[in-house]
Every structure is written in structure tokens, then in C-alpha cells.
């Protein structure tokens, strides 16, 4: 079935649901320009003040609505239409006129109410239960039968951690900030709020602002925070020179670490963002002058001390059951891959003693038998870009051996090294390799862009996001938001004061709907994948650096190892035959030529 035919069938089905006669097929002799026009499947009601009518068949890619506004088709002579075979005796007519409706207020609100009723009819029963958080989503086509080698990061890939770990990281870093850096004791009164920040946010180091940026480098209004308080949009415009745009030279660098703006990309960064907001808030609420740049450096160093001093490793090793989640699923994935003859390797920045303890807990003492190569303290992302550090071998006690490494052998533990020696010693290159990691920059970017490996991103937030998207409240709000936007786009050509007033009312409702949908994910920053309508900067990087992405490694258990992941063909703006707002408002994306002629 062609795309045009599918669009025709979908339009006819939707309008049949709405108890209207479906539109007749478009005549093959109709002018190409007239494809932007539409008519009614049955004789429509006319808005007041409509002028003389002429007959014309409806286009297949435009559905009728009550009180269709006047429009003029392309000025090309057309033959009288044939009657539709499925509706004998029914004449299909459309009316064109340059006259505007006499009662615009009634006309606008009739269109509004008809559209809103249609929105409820468009959502089929059970549609909210279609999403499954165990799904693997494809950005690029991946054939698992062509993948022979599977590689893994450790933290938040093989090992998933509970939220209580972030609480400990925050509390300990807060203590370092007070005791080591001599910050005010009053900061200690701020407890950790796990629901304040989300992954992928940007932080303006000089201004002390935490904010959400979309794929086009624009700040999402309403998501800029100084401390724990939102910054009004008007003040944001003042701070950034009258625009919400963040210039490329000021934005974070390739690895999210720019001189002026930093992007927080890994899950471990959530307590760091919260501590930054807390420290800023303390100085602001107590009217204490401070330097945001030094504050950022001190908080970053306090968080770093938690990792460098080994506190995090110590906590997890002392209570593996509390901090490590779903270890049995990790074992099941590894066992399945090995049983199908796949080669496995591990490249992690964590030390061997920590990895050994966790893997023994999840998989058993023989966990190294699953892996053909194990590399610890790899210093990613430099492991993927530098060719300076050689590989070193560790003995069974984790002590360093100093012999030259001529091969990477199964059962051995290696430290540091670099990817260039790894490729030379293993010969594992190109799309035969699929590597899993949670950090888009440190784990995946260089592997995809420089070396052509397949990459898989672990995004634990998918579980919560799919739960929200699957609710009937979200589906209804989003569908009505799209429909209302389409209705506003369709009727914006009316420039009289009364019409403008109604459109302003609708714009306020549209903004309220945007806030409602955002707050369902996170009251401060919303979804990690979406701004109001654009993808987030995080989402853009996710699509760029990962072939597939999933909530957890266990999602692999739902697929055969010869499965082919096909990305959905998401319509581009210029190629979509039918968008939701078009279906709801009965118009094509491009406004009619007559109504837009004054613009040109």
C-alpha cells in the first residue's frame, strides 16, 4: 500500500468514526496545486455570509470539518466530479468564496468544540497500554545475527544501582563542602531531593544557572533555575542578551565540558546538580555575595572526592544487596550470549576489586569465564582517543605486573591501555562489535564516530518516562495540545481584533497544556527527551551516538539473537501526509493559498 493510499484510508476511517460521510477519492485529473485544498465528503454547513458556490470534489488528503472557512483553490479549470460509487445519490460539493464568516466568534468556538470532540474520538481504547519499558528502541538498523562480539561498561550497565546511592553521594559531598572547603554550616539543613534534577541538563558556570536546552540550542522557557527557585522568562532573556539561544561557542564541548557551560550526562551527576542548586540557594536566600565560578569548582571537587577517595566503592561493597539491583538479569544475559557462541569483553573505569565484588555477587565466582577480555581503570573517554597508555596485567590479587602485553588473554585482568592496541591485539572491528554503556560521551560517542562499532545506550529513565506516556491523562493532553496548535495555525489568517482575542485565549490554554505535560515527568525540568515540542539536547545526542537504546540490559532477553532492529520512519516536516493536528482540524499543514496570499 502506497503512502498516499494509506493516508486516504486513514482519513476515510477517521471520518467514518465521526459519523460523517468519508471523502471521495481525489480525481486523477485534478490540478497538482489543488492538493492543498479540501472539500466536504457530504454537503457541509456554510458559515454565515458565504457567497456563491461552485462544485468541486474533495481532495483525499484533506478532511472536512463543520463550518469550513472559505478558501479558493488554484485557478485552474476543473471538470465536474464523478459521484462516489459508495454513496449513490449523494452529491459532494464544496463552496468557495472570498467572503468572511459574519459571526466570527461563533465560527471560531464551533471549530474549537468540534475539534475537541474529535480528539476524544481519535484515541482508541487501550492505546495507552501499548508502550512497554522492556522494548529496545532503534535509531539505526541493527542485525544481531551480524554481531559476534558484545562489549560492556560496568556501572549502570552490567550493574544497576538503587537511588539510595545518590543520597549517600550527596550527603558525603555536602559534608566535604562544609568541613574541607569551610562552607557555611547552614548548607547541612538541605536534605537530598531525588526528584529535583534530571539527567542531561546544562549548567551555566558563570551565571550559576541550571537549565534545559533543546536540540537547537534554545533554552526551554520555565526550566531555568538559580538555586532552588525558577528564574522568570523575562529575566532569562535579559541574562542572555534578549534571546533564549545559547551560541555554539558558549555551549558545552564535545564531551559536555565547555569553558562556560557544562552538560551533566551521567546518572552519577544528579546529586552533583542538586548540591550545586542547594549551595546557590543558601547564598541567595541569606543575601551572601559569592562567586558562582568558584562555587562550581568547589562542588565539583567535593563530588570528585567521593569517588577518588573510594567512598562509593566502599558503600556498595559493604551492602551489595542494598545497592545492586536485578543482578540475576545480568547473569541471564551473559549466560545466554555465551551459550550462543558470542565473545564478550568488559571495559570499565572502576577498579578491579570493586568490579570483582559486584560481579561475584551478580554472576558468581566464575564470572571471568564469561569474558574473553576484562579491562579495568580504563580512563574512558581517553581510552578511546589516546594511544599513549600501554596495557598492564594484574595478578590474582589485583597487583600490577610489569611485563609487556603481547596478547589479551581470556581469564586475565588488564588495566589502562588504549583502544588502538585493543583493536590491534583482538582484531575486533566495525559492526561485528556491539558495545553497551550509559554515558553517551565517555562510552559511546568515539566508538560510533571514529571506529564504526555498533553502540547501545542504557537509559534507566525510560521506565518512568514510558509509565507517564502510557497514562490516559497524558495521551489526552498531548493529543489536544497538537490539535489546538493545528487549529490555531489554521485560523491565524483572521486578523480582526475579535479573532486575535480568541487566538490569544487559545495560546494561553496551549501554554497551560505544555506546562501540564511537562510537570507529569518532572515539575522543574520535564522529560529528559522532550522540551515543549523539540527533542532535548540529550535526546539529540542519544540519537546521534547510539544505534539502539533501552532501559536496562535485561531488555536483550526479550529478543532472539538473530533479531533485526528496524528504526521507525519518522516523517520529516515536509513529507508527512497526515499529522495529528491535520486529522483533528481537517486541514493540510500548509495554509490555503488564498488565505495566505497577503503574506506573499
Averaged pLDDT: 82
Strand content: 5-15%
Structural class by SSE content? alpha/beta
The portion of residues assigned to helices is 25-40%
Shape: globular
What's the count of strands?
19
Rg, alpha carbons = 29 Å
Give me the side-by-side strand order of the main sheet: 1-18-17-16-3-11-12-15-13-14
pLDDT < 50 runs, ≥5 residues: 1-98, 585-600
Domain count: 3
Main beta-sheet strand count, sense and barrel state: 10 strands, mixed
Distance between the termini: 37 Å
Number of helices: 19
GO molecular function: 5'-nucleotidase activity; metal ion binding
Biased composition (Basic and acidic residues): 68-85
Family: Belongs to the 5'(3')-deoxyribonucleotidase family.
Protein name: 5'-nucleotidase domain-containing protein 2
